[in-house]
Amino acid sequence: MKHQSVNYQTLEAVIHSASHKHRKLSLTSNIARLWNRIVESIIAINELKIYSLTSRSGIGYWVIYDPLLARRVFFNSEAEVREWLDRRYYE
Question: Which residues lie closer than 8 Å to 84 by C-beta, 6 or more apart?
Answer without folding.
Answer: 64, 73, 75
